[in-house]
């Protein structure tokens, strides 16, 4: 790969954001998932949980364990995870397929319960989080990418008021970037225009859980 103006030019000739480097699985994640708008509750819940697990680690570490996480947490079905008890915590702490951090495991179970509460009040997780979509969504150059925004601070604060955990402003902004609430693909990255078109075509999420 060749770097040019903060972009990496791949062997396929395409210009990409610099951060996935050359790891094939990371490049595939960048190309096909990151920044594409998501309105499915289970995918949104999964990502919030995995961003919490990522705290202090690299996303690539979590990405490579994602299937293990999905198997361990029943595909991130909040109705199932909300019923996990101490025996499940003990099982998960011993599971080499995930990050075995008791606090983050217990947080995921807690957040599943809080998600069910949120759905009862708001209709869906999608309708709730997309209310925090900022008006300005394009960052531009490599040096302009930020770790938090006023919207991520507001969403983090509101989630904490609802007793969610491991949802600090940085974690929440990474979630917003990945789920397409903002388009932080760099200008010049081939995904930038594609993500923007998908965002423009997106119908606002309704209150019905998807």
UniProtKB/TrEMBL annotation:
Signal peptide (residue range): none
Pfam families attached to this UniProt entry: Adenine_glyco (PF03352)
Residues that, per the record, bind Zn(2+): 17, 30, 185, 189
Alphabetic keyword roster: Glycosidase, Hydrolase, Metal-binding, Zinc
GO biological process, one term: base-excision repair
EC main group: hydrolase
EC number assigned by the record: 3.2.2.20
GO terms assigned for molecular function: DNA-3-methyladenine glycosylase activity; metal ion binding
SUPFAM superfamilies given in the database record: DNA-glycosylase
Iron-sulfur is among the record's keywords: no
UniProt keyword Zinc present: yes
Domain of life: Bacteria
PANTHER family found in the cross-reference section: DNA-3-METHYLADENINE GLYCOSYLASE 1, DNA-3-METHYLADENINE GLYCOSYLASE I
Designated name of the protein: DNA-3-methyladenine glycosylase I
């Amino acid at each position: 790969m060749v770097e040019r103006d903060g972009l990496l030019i791949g062997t396929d000739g395409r210009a990409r954001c610099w951060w996935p480097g050359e790891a094939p699985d990371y490049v595939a994640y960048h190309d096909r998932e990151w920044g594409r708008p998501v309105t499915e509750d289970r995918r949104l819940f999964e990502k919030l949980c995995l961003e919490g697990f990522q705290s202090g680690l690299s996303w690539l570490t979590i990405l490579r364990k994602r299937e293990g996480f999905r198997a361990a947490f029943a595909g991130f079905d909040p109705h199932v995870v909300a019923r996990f008890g101490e025996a499940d915590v003990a099982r998960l702490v011993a599971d080499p397929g995930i990050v075995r951090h008791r606090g983050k495991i217990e947080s995921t179970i807690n957040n599943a319960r809080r998600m069910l509460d949120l759905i009862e009040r708001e209709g869906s997780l999608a309708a709730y989080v997309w209310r925090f979509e900022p008006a300005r969504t394009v960052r531009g150059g490599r040096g302009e990418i930020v770790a938090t925004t006023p919207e991520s601070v507001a969403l983090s604060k509101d989630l904490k008021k609802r007793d969610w955990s491991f949802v600090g402003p940085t974690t929440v902004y990474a979630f917003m970037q990945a789920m397409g609430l903002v388009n932080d693909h760099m200008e010049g990255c081939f995904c930038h225009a594609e993500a923007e078109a998908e965002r423009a075509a997106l119908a606002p999420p309704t209150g019905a859980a998807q």
